## 1
Amino acid sequence: MTANDLKLYHSAASPNSRRVRIFLAEKGLTVPLVSIDLSKREQDSQAYRAINPRSLVPTLVLEDGTAIGEVLAIWRYFEDHYSSAPPLLGVTPKEKALVTMWERRAELEGFAAVMEGVRNAAPSLKGRAIAGPHGHEPLPVLVELSRQRIRDFFGDFDFRLAEAPFVAGEKFSVADITTLVTVDFAARSFDMPLPRNALALKRWYDNVSARPSTAA
Amino acid sequence: MTANDLKLYHSAASPNSRRVRIFLAEKGLTVPLVSIDLSKREQDSQAYRAINPRSLVPTLVLEDGTAIGEVLAIWRYFEDHYSSAPPLLGVTPKEKALVTMWERRAELEGFAAVMEGVRNAAPSLKGRAIAGPHGHEPLPVLVELSRQRIRDFFGDFDFRLAEAPFVAGEKFSVADITTLVTVDFAARSFDMPLPRNALALKRWYDNVSARPSTAA
């Protein structure tokens, strides 16, 4: 299905954009994409700030011009508007609650820790240690804290994936998307590949990475 | 409506628990409550850790014993399971996306900043600077960073509430609940009352605080 009345502003290099691209590929939805080049700081251009004053990608722009920021909000829009596509946020109230809980844990304990580590370590992000329009200088002490948090995340999710085939339980969901993007982000941008002893997490990772959507 | 088959573990002093209590009061739902005394560290007891191994409140326990942690997940359960109660997460796909976006901004830019500030400043939380089972020593430098982030939050949300009657637009939603709990939490626990010049935010606060649900 192609949603030609929408526009998704994204960046190939942005892990948050990838969370949306994988979601769309799993649903079989095609949305016109507009690339924002973060290396040229296009997100700070006047043209993009008119769309998203917080200078963040991704942003989904609806037919009536409404701009939706935040991955979770973009997912929510597609899940409810294209309800014939495969559900990724759960079906029953209990499933929906469990998917929400596990996706959130993956994001806050995993994804956000990698992001904080990268932003406080990367010289190119000087003055931008927190995403958004308010400048913050990096705090080197947060780099080590992030590493600790990621180690805990790997341990906790290895434990979880020893007891369930997917992060939120029996079915693939957005909780798997966020966990997968986090594992790749940690390995590629923060030099923290999966630990060798995280066998269940590694088995889950190999399984989920084989889905064609993850190339998105 | 009374949901006697559920149990909500909460603490009177916990701002995350308050987010759930206000939500239930707005919906007119009554759920059997079980108090966890944080001052006695009851959340670390073996009995409570069997329910929520992360030692966090609130937790919703379903009839079949499934434990749902995370405020957003608990809200989602009630919104979908008791669909005759007033909606607080939006009705149309566009509203749902905007509520998700604004609630998330209130939480990440406001609520989480106050929480980080309080946890890194409070001597009684030594070794527990990050919520959950993994101990972390407080970093005093984060207290000042939190103050900066809360000042930015007050400014950004004052701007927002000068253009819309409620945080997510025309209707009261969970975005207002999180913003209200954040404003009270900052004033009571982090000595950061609303700035005098935040006129729109103050007008919104007075209006929303007058709702009976906020006593919950």
## 2
Amino acid sequence: MVKPGDSVVVITQDERIEGMYLEKPALLKQDTIIIKLSSGYNIGIDKDKVKSIRVVKEYVKPRSKNKEIKQDSKLPNVSVLSTGGTISSKVDYNTGGVIADYSAEDFLEMCPELSNVANLKAKKVMGMMTENITYDEISKIAIEVAKELEKADGVVVTMGTDMLGYIAAALSFCLDVNKPVIITAAQKSIDRGSSDSFFNLISSVNAAANFNGSGVYVCMHGSSSDDYCNLIKGVKVRKMHTSRRDAFRSINEKPVAQIYGEGEIKVVNDSFEKRGMGKTSVKNKFEKKVGLVYIYPEINVELFDVYMDYKGIILMGTGLGHVPQTIYPGIKKLIDKGVFVGMTSQCLYSRVSSTVYSGLREIKALGVVYLEDQLPETALMKLSWLLGNGKDVSLMTSDLKGEMNDRIEYDTFLI
Amino acid sequence: MVKPGDSVVVITQDERIEGMYLEKPALLKQDTIIIKLSSGYNIGIDKDKVKSIRVVKEYVKPRSKNKEIKQDSKLPNVSVLSTGGTISSKVDYNTGGVIADYSAEDFLEMCPELSNVANLKAKKVMGMMTENITYDEISKIAIEVAKELEKADGVVVTMGTDMLGYIAAALSFCLDVNKPVIITAAQKSIDRGSSDSFFNLISSVNAAANFNGSGVYVCMHGSSSDDYCNLIKGVKVRKMHTSRRDAFRSINEKPVAQIYGEGEIKVVNDSFEKRGMGKTSVKNKFEKKVGLVYIYPEINVELFDVYMDYKGIILMGTGLGHVPQTIYPGIKKLIDKGVFVGMTSQCLYSRVSSTVYSGLREIKALGVVYLEDQLPETALMKLSWLLGNGKDVSLMTSDLKGEMNDRIEYDTFLI
């Protein structure tokens, strides 16, 4: 019987298709089979049309090996924690599926240069795509990071790219640390020739070992070549492109540093907390009843009723922080109920302001809190974290981890 | 008695405040007065603390003048329609309010150079800030534009900046035209020294008069200086900064042209419909039961129930178009009910794709339609327009007005 991962030849009424037999996605209709072509693309074929399927080569699951990791007492100690994502998707890519299953140990084996940079410890924390990660997983990652930081000089966390920005922000609030926590990922899986995985990994291990900052940063390609990675504060990072390796951008401030692989670390923006002594503390609770609401023309006021049992929402308003007048009553109802309502801008760049127009002053008078230059996604994570840990929501307008700044440099637009 | 617009001196327990007495925003608590300072900022003062208010200079409403507009038969004819927004906010700025009230006629008086570029006709269509504009107003603007195009060589529409992108997209679908319709606006009101109004206006009149394209375009500052404006397709434009004059950006393709004030028009990207002969047709109905939903970690599946009586929603998914697995049932319920569900990306740049990951294939299998490189806001307007005019929603994956392209040039990221 044909099994997922087998190389097959399928004969249909019209054609002959060679490729790898894949597991059928759960929600696809029953009478379809999926074949991954050598081009990397998958096609679905109606079972009705299939005349025969012949197994050319059976799939053999790769053996798990016990790896000896080289240790050098002169090098810093870095722990690499894997949580899933495209960077972890090799093994499943072989079977055609994409459920993340590739672990931190495998990275070390595939990228031996890493052991020139640091003494490495690897641990698989979970194997998930970020879009499915919940607050519970973020809490777990925070605990694992803190545990590793007891001994390591820095920690690298690998994950998927989709919700990386949210998770980086959430971890920034969870972790009071005196060492760097470097989050990295890949836009193309590690087994592809053009993968960005290795350069991101080696730059991240370099940053974890040698960067003179503490806190949570994201380390991803800074250009479309393998020349350097940008190190960006976890509270200021956003995925701005669906597929480019340099998709991750620092919004409203410059990246803190450029990391040249296992080489130089060039500080670009000195506004980061320095690496220091002291203990690590973790506050990793989250309130789940928070939401992010995008504003658009004639948005219906009734949509806001659904948030009546929420603890808080973040609006992505227009421009400096407008919403249509017709939804003022909906917002007022929420605020009267005790729901926190914060304002950010769907422009993403620069800050909201409640002073310029009378409409803005009216919205502020309803009790909406203007969140300055905080990213919508970061504001959501901060709100969930504040509420979850019993902190006062008035801290939404205080800078806790570099998420809010008085001044935005002019040359940071669309960099 | 003190009236809005009066220059006053307010004496409180603690200080002496000079400025302009403003109308109190409707929702502000009763016992506050608002004074606009000469710095341009407004302050609220508790009535309890006010010892005296003295009127220094009474506000006199500017007289409406009948203006003679110069005509030159050798010049093209351009109609300027004003709809409100910051570019129209001078008169109310004087009284301190910001309800748009300044009309197209006033632009011509304040910017006499405009008559060197074209024979101008001016008309005030409405006086609103864009965040309050509904589909009904968009329909009205479409009709007025079509009416003017019967005689004019091009039309300029001035409006606010906040929802300009949405309105430009909506008008693009409404109007089948063979002449250019140029939308412009200002980030700073026309009576400020640093206003971008005049340069945007003169560039827009130049484009309406002389640009060799047809259809709806946005003409706004292309840099932070008054050197040129970018002409951007109405379906590809987005406000990317809350305050900069060059906030409007062409997403996923280059602007079609650079407009050098009343001077040169330099075509940058030739992918536009050319100016031609033929009649103007307007299809200006919209379906109001459409929504835009932003995806974030652990978004609650129950939120989707609120869209059960909607005709369609556009998701702003993560990355290539993911959503958490936990909301698949909510989406499926909507689709089973006949609600159209389209997928765009919150990354904004590049396209969604349903083929790369099994999660994406599963979401597509639910019946979610992947909308390629269409902007979320444009997709929402297109959906509303298709449904409103009885057209098939399968057109969501056809390119109607340049909103969807097979190829994205590599050097268009963050330009």
